[in-house]
Write a structure and sequence with these properties.
The complex is a heterodimer of chains A (79) and B (196).
Chain A: E1 3-5, H1 7-13, H2 18-25, H3 29-36, H4 45-55, H5 59-62, E2 63-65, H6 75-78
Antiparallel strand pairs in A: 1-2
Helix pairs in contact in A: 2-3
Chain B: H1 3-9, H2 11-53, H3 55-66, H4 74-106, H5 113-145, H6 163-193
Helix pairs in contact in B: 1-2, 2-4, 4-5, 5-6
The chains are: A mainly alpha (79), B mainly alpha (196).
């Protein structure tokens, strides 16, 4: 998946712990961990909104698009 | 934080809470279904045993139905009774499926793959029960009368296939179709649970 979640980086920058963020945004700590590890299928705008408010950042600071490596691309895309 | 606020705060929690509410709403229906299913099979079994315990009376009824003199040996009588028991055994499978299905709902697992699987089994068992019931009626009458597919002078072949059989088949197929819908819903719920 070329979308990378940089929540752990933002948490480190803001010196905030996962538990604290979970309390701020009202989701479980387990969900924050899943989000940090990128083991989720999606994130609601509502959750993103709360995270940005809690960490005083932009959605782009949390989500990053990293194009797949050349070998991961289909042949037609490499040509 | 109030329960409503929690609903808004955590969709996964809201989903669990929603399932709890749903369980509370359908709880009594599940219990009633379980009781009705057990009552049905018990009633059916007791009624069958009562009917078949009086050989003379039962054969008299069949003699009237087919307008023939029946002289049925103990072995043939037992074989015909076994045919009815096969039909009841398939009915018992339906009861087990309903019991397990209601159990998954009572445990709060409504939109889950195992609940969809039990719904599918219930539908399949229901379809099988209708088919076996019709077949066993034919087998039983054939054994008792001593000829394959005996025809009743008064009712023809109507005694084997009744309009309610079609109704039962429609319901069973509907349950089977519903199981596919529930499976799709369970997969969607699983996907939804992975969105935070």
């Amino acid at each position: 998946m070329p979308i990378v979640v940089n929540l752990d980086v933002m948490l480190a920058r803001r010196k905030m712990r996962s538990k604290e963020l979970a309390e701020h945004i009202g989701i479980t700590e387990q969900n924050v961990s899943l989000l940090k590890s990128g083991k989720v299928k999606g994130i609601r705008f509502e959750t993103l909104d709360r995270i940005c408010a809690a960490l005083s950042c932009q959605p782009g600071d949390i989500l990053e698009y990293r194009p797949a490596e050349a070998e991961d691309l289909p042949d037609s895309a490499r040509a | 934080m109030s329960d409503t606020a929690l609903h808004l705060a955590d969709p996964r929690l809201a989903s669990a809470s929603y399932q709890r509410d749903l369980r509370a709403r359908i709880g009594w229906i599940c219990h009633a279904l379980r009781i009705a299913a057990v009552l049905w099979i018990t009633w059916n079994l007791a009624f069958t045993i009562f009917n078949w315990s009086d050989k003379a009376r039962l054969l008299q009824n069949y003699q009237r139905l087919f307008s023939v003199d029946l002289d049925v040996s103990a072995a043939r009588y037992a074989a015909a009774f076994a045919a009815i028991m096969v039909s009841l055994a398939v009915g018992a499978v339906v009861v087990v499926c309903i019991w397990r299905l209601a159990g998954t709902y009572l445990a709060g697992r409504v939109f889950t793959l195992d609940a969809a699987l039990w719904l599918r089994r219930t539908g399949l068992a229901g379809i099988s029960a209708v088919i076996v019931s019709v077949l066993m009626r034919i087998v039983m009458a054939s054994i008792l009368v001593g000829q394959f597919l005996p025809i009743s002078p008064s009712y023809g072949y109507y005694i084997y296939l009744l309009p309610q059989d079609l109704l039962h088949a429609i319901f069973a197929v509907f349950v089977f179709a519903l199981a596919h819908i529930f499976k799709a819903a369970a997969e969607m719920a699983e996907d939804q649970a992975q969105i935070v």
